[in-house]
Amino acid sequence: MTLTPDPERFLSELHALRHFGASGIGKGVVRPAYSEADIAARRWLAERMDAAGLVPRFDPVGNLFGLAEGPSLLLGSHSDSQPEGGWLDGALGVVAALEVARAARAAGGPPISVVSFQDEEGRFGVTTGSAVWSGTLPLEAADGLIDHAGLGFAEARGRMAEIAGDFVDPGRFRGFIEMHIEQGPTLDTAGEHIGVVTDIVGIRDMRITFRGQQNHAGTTPMQLRRDAFQALARFNAEVNDAFRNVVTPRTVWTIGHVALHPNTSSIVPGRASFSMQWRDSDPDRLGRMEAIVRETADRVAGEGGLGLEFGPLLGLEPVAMDPALRAALEAAAESVAPGRWRKLPSGALHDATNVARLMPVAMLFVPSIGGISHAFEEDTDEADLVAGLQVLAAAVDRLRLQARS
Ligand code: HGY
Ligand code: MN
Ligand code: MN
Asked: Residue of 3, 184, 228, 369 with fewest CB within 10 Å of its CB?
């Protein structure tokens, strides 16, 4: 009996989830890891998993699993959001997984478990919940992480202590498939409905701090200043320049968070602390970019007479998707959207990168309207959401038949 997920129930559950932390602007959400809205959403998802016949289990870092009996295929994503997030980033994969798990149960199999990983958006680290679960990041190291406001990971995860159980054994899962929005313009621009991911880029992410001299903005001559913002500005210009010899058109880098101290008009900033993040599909290029970042910061600090601190370098390596799981997704995409799908790399990071250390993984995308994500405007046509659900279900069906043959 083939799997027949219920599109109406899927869409209504997706809309219900976005009300946890609704931003009040479009369909946007504010549901950072361990926030009240995030924990409430996870409790609600646990109830939905239970109602779907799965056993809900929170692990010590707040990853939520809905467990089928015995060996199963794991589907899912994450339900925490960026500080200003879209309603689909992560949530889509969790709700689609739950609907396919119901359809599989109704069809007499295959057993499907569901997961919502915690802190994929890296409030504390980089895909922190799945990084800890997969062994990429030791729990003790994660507990030493802090968010931009200074809250510690240990304290944050402690907010879920009363519902937290042990880590779930990855050995019970045969593989992992994550459905996600593309978060880029490729599918939307091409008028295609489905993307089957070939590989996920690697990432490096660190905090850098320049320490100069806080001083009066009116009486301090320019040539005597040790202005931490000017150091950051020079660093940025010189890194952009140096990267030109190393990067490709697909390489990206971002200074997304800047904290100036004391951050007021009439004081020369004495401290500039900022995030420096870069991504590429080639680990060697990621390493060369790191050398440029460190050398440039050293030179700017040295020549300007400023102090310099590098925070811990967080990162994940590029990872290729599993050929067998990918083939099932490709065949399913052709059956649901013939000629209107493509294979493509993921420029965004996903929990699948960490899970790939433990088992075969694959991902499928649906289009993001205008390629927008990590913004309240993030959206996808409902027809494309349903097409993605049908591809996920059809791929699970194919994998069941293969397992039987
Ligand atoms: O940043 C990322 O790629 C992911 O959305 N957290
Ligand atoms: Mn995501
Ligand atoms: Mn995201």
From this structure: 369
